[in-house]
Amino acid sequence: MHNSKKWKTGDYILFFIVAILALAFFFPMLFSILSAFKTNGEILKNPIGLPKRINFSNFFYLWNKTSIPRATVNSFILTTVSCFFIILVVPMSSYVIERRSGKFSSFFYPLFLAGMMIPFQAYMIPLFRELRVIGLFGTMLAPVIIYISGASSFGTLLYCSFIRSVPKEIEESAAIDGSSPFKTFWKIVFPLLKPCTASMLILQGVGIWNDFLMPMMVMPANQPKTINVEIFSFIGEFQVRYDVLFCGTLVAIVPVIIIFIFLQKYFINGIMAGAVKS
């Protein structure tokens, strides 16, 4: 006999609230998608209406008459390079902090966590001045270094909680077989951190791809920067190309959705496992 849990009044109320919130979050995306295939006149005349016909001229204009192609490449480079070094550096530092007990770990672990409590606005101006002093201001390298250092605080907290659950006996067996700590980590421990790594890639990758302030402030002037900065440039003082703006927004959204679709299983497992471990 099939036993199904009957919904109570509270369940219906909760479902209704969640559905309203989901609709509120989905509507801006739907609005952007529809507007990307409209002309500028249609958007101004009937913003929430359906397009009279599917218009692809916005995409041709966006790709051939603007700096979006180069800006997209810059966004891809920043996101890929930053995520690569984040995954290369943060897990190793977390492994050392977690496995090397003593004064070293007790000093650096709170130091990393303290970075999560200091708002970016508090050190933004000193950071930019420091970049000028060391000659990195106005280069592609500057935001990469900032993204890596910015991810170290949350990444250390996340990876340490996962590494703590890995049995030390596995590493001790590898050491008996002659494996070095470096090889033990990358060959044995790191593959066990796949859900954590997927969570880091999604959270940091989406954050870097969608970032506006950092590329706007520190990347080379008078050159294409990132896709979000170029989209902002479509907003002029006297005229706004809404059709091209929403088309660029759609181009910026698609890669994020694709990456999340491929990694969502690992992301959800990582979040759930992290919640249990913490």
Can you tell me about this structure?
The chain is an all-alpha fold. It folds into two domains: 48 residues, no CATH class; 217 residues, MetI-like fold (Orthogonal Bundle), CATH 1.10.3720.10. Helices cover 74% and strands 0% of the residues. Helix 3 crosses helix 13 and helix 7 runs antiparallel to helix 10. The longest helix is centred in the C-terminal third of the chain and has 36 residues. The radius of gyration is 23 Å and the shape is globular. The two termini are 39 Å apart. The model has no long low-confidence stretch (mean pLDDT 84).
Task: Please sum up the structure shown.
It contains 13 helices and no strands.
